[in-house]
Design a protein that fits this description.
76% of the residues lie in helices and 0% in strands. The termini are far apart. The radius of gyration is 19 Å and the shape is elongated. The chain is mainly α.
């Protein structure tokens, strides 16, 4: 029972630290943030910070890792799809849902600070999902175009559309993006 209480305290402390760094990143670049700034904003002692993280980079890495796990979970909902078009349209919907749910995190890390680690995380997670799906399929185009090449083609479009939507501040509506993709993506059966 005591261990569970300690775990809850650890969870709450990390949550406070995550929120603090995200709020500070709205105001200034990550490089200019000090551990003391994070601790002050989170109302946490420096010793408590160092109990959980070696430095601010480890804190950010932990935050991005949690974001990655959440994205993987979200993308795993893309099941029972019969065509590649359905898959990619559902993939962008799931990515946009994830980005909207975590909008403040993405804006702080990727838009305000252009953090390449976070960009790489999203890129790698979506790439892994697409590549895995393509390797599981046996369509006629698989022989003509390698799965890795097709994955990179669709990955670039999906990632850039997702980020453009996130930073465009309602320039494009979600429904419009889905309509545009429906026009652009060709229909291929997975079988």
């Amino acid at each position: 029972m005591k261990k569970q209480k300690e775990d809850l305290r650890v969870i709450k402390t990390k949550k406070c630290l995550y929120e603090a760094i995200l709020n500070i990143m709205k105001e200034k670049p990550f490089e200019n943030i000090k551990v003391s700034d994070i601790c002050t904003k989170a109302c946490v002692n420096r010793s408590t910070f160092y109990t959980h993280f070696e430095d601010k980079y480890m804190l950010l890495d932990s935050l991005i890792h949690n974001l990655s796990e959440n994205l993987v979970e979200e993308l795993s909902k893309n099941k029972n799809i019969s065509t590649s078009k359905e898959y990619y349209i559902e993939l962008i919907k799931l990515l946009m849902n994830h980005m909207e749910d975590k909008k403040e995190i993405y804006k702080s890390i990727m838009i305000n600070n252009r953090n390449s680690i976070a960009m790489d995380m999203v890129y790698d997670t979506v790439n892994e999902d697409i590549t895995k799906r393509l390797e599981q399929t046996s369509s006629a185009t698989k022989k003509a175009v390698p799965a890795e090449f097709r994955a990179k083609f669709y990955l670039g479009a999906i990632i850039h559309i997702g980020f453009e939507w996130l930073k465009s501040k309602n320039r494009y509506k979600r429904e419009d993006i889905i309509t545009y993709l429906d026009e652009l993506i060709s229909e291929h059966s997975w079988q």
